[in-house]
Amino acid sequence: MNLSNPIQNLLLFAALALFLYLFFRPVNGWYWIIKNNLNSNRKVVIEDLLKQLYTSENAGTLITTNDLTLRLKYKNHQIIEVLQEMALTELIVLAGDQIQLTPLGREYAVKIVRVHRLWEKYLAEKTGFDKSEWHHRAEDMEHRLDHEATNELAVKLGNPIFDPHGDPIPSELGNMAEITGSSMVNLPVNTLGKIVHIEDEPDVIYKQILAENIHIGSQIRIVENTNKRVVFYSEGEEFILAPIVAANLTVEPLDAASILEEDAVRLSSLQQNEMAEILGISKECRGESRRRLLDLGFVRGTPIQIDLVSPLSDTKAYLVKGSSIALRTDQAAKVLIKKLG
Length: 341
Hints:
- The chain is an alpha+beta fold.
- Among the domains are: 182-258, Roll (SH3 type barrels), CATH 2.30.30; 265-340, Ferrous iron transport protein A (FeoA) (SH3 type barrels, Roll), CATH 2.30.30.90.
- The chain has eleven helices and 15 strands.
- Strand 13 and strand 14 form a beta hairpin.
């Protein structure tokens, strides 16, 4: 009796049964993993489209399908398919080539913006990530946190009103504070003001602002404003920006009486043999970094001077309350001082 065929059939049946089990088993089956990944990716595309539409509408500009294909990283056919789905679910209205959010779509978009800005606030206050990383890390997390986790994050942060760039953070009900002030390019020469918002998009312009070491909360005086350049003084330094870069800075005008410590300069400008008094710490310094400086004695009214300059790096040691404390140039730039005599 030849048993080879029955045995082969049994083995084939067993292999097929195992394959079907691995493919279709609940939760961890390959079929469900693939399906969930596809659904997750589709959710990300929908939310990215909603946020882009929300941003454009808030700027007062209408957006087209072509605009979205140019601004987002997805393939054109994928964007078009998802837009059609969004129209069917009444998240958007398609009027020819133009797209508008419905009230339902805007409500959904605000929730995404809320997560993004809360997460940027978390990164600024609770982690050591550089501010150049906040936006991209928040873009990833905005698709992951559910409603409950978002509210828990807000409570943990003290229900902040603004993110570290000065953008208003929507409340749980979708309410937002208003940004006061005007774009720097619209302000006349001799304007005194305070930087209240730094736009973090597009990325190439934001990186230029970071490279200039411009701080939110800094008081400024505009000395030149033309179609070629904008020049202003802040914290003892002169800044020269192209108008396209200056347009991403929002300044709240202040009257002369509201300008505090106009002679304030950054600790990074202090030279050897100069004496100074600490006026405070820039709002740009947040979270653990701020607490560390305060604990080390960098408080208002404290005398300070250079103790040691490292010839091989940008680090200097400052004498504060009898202790020598080393700071990098970018750290020292966040401490405001008044030079003495």
